[in-house]
Amino acid sequence: MKIKPIRTNVDYERALREIQRLWGAKEASPEGDRLDVLATLVDAYENEHFPIDPPDPIEAIRFRLEQQGLDTSALVGVIGGRSRVYEVMQRKRALSLEMIRRLHERFGIPAEILIRPTRAGRRRRAA
Using 50, 70 and 90 to split pLDDT, how confident is the model at 118? Predict the structure, then answer.
């Protein structure tokens, strides 16, 4: 396979097959260099054609807590008291800049995710 830009889905599939064939090639070998270049081309194609939206801040917080085997009580003191944690996690209160800083420092959640607007929670209809 000649290395060229990936412009079509056919090019993309061909590059993926070649990457699979080259997987495990020694670094700095001709095959390893080819693998690096193809992986870079595939990454660029996927970023353009299959973009992934950043997560919602509240979902990112839930995910990080789950990763660490924690529940929302771990947020007490980081973003405020129990009632403040409840309000934030129920999307009734936005994250403040100070909350974002503390969440980033304590849990390593990227600040660029935490500053995004949260998706609106479901609202109950009045009967």
Answer: confident
Phi, psi of 119 (to 5 degrees): -70, 140
- Residue 14 Rama label (left phi>0; alpha psi -120 to 50; beta): alpha
Residues whose CB is less than 8 angstroms from the CB of residue 25 and which lie 6 or more positions away in sequence, other chains included:
31, 32, 34, 35
Handedness of CA 16, 20, 22, 23 (dihedral sign): positive
For 7-22, give one letter per residue: b (16+ CB within 10 A) or e: eeeebbeebbebbeeb
Q: Which pTM was predicted?
A: 0.61
Query: For residues 7 and 49, what is the distance between their CA atoms, to the nearest angstrom?
Result: 10
Two tokens, residue 39: 């992986």
Token pair belonging to 24: 């495990």
Closest C-alpha to 47, from 39, 36, 55: 39
Query: Does the structure show a pLDDT above 50 at 127?
Result: no
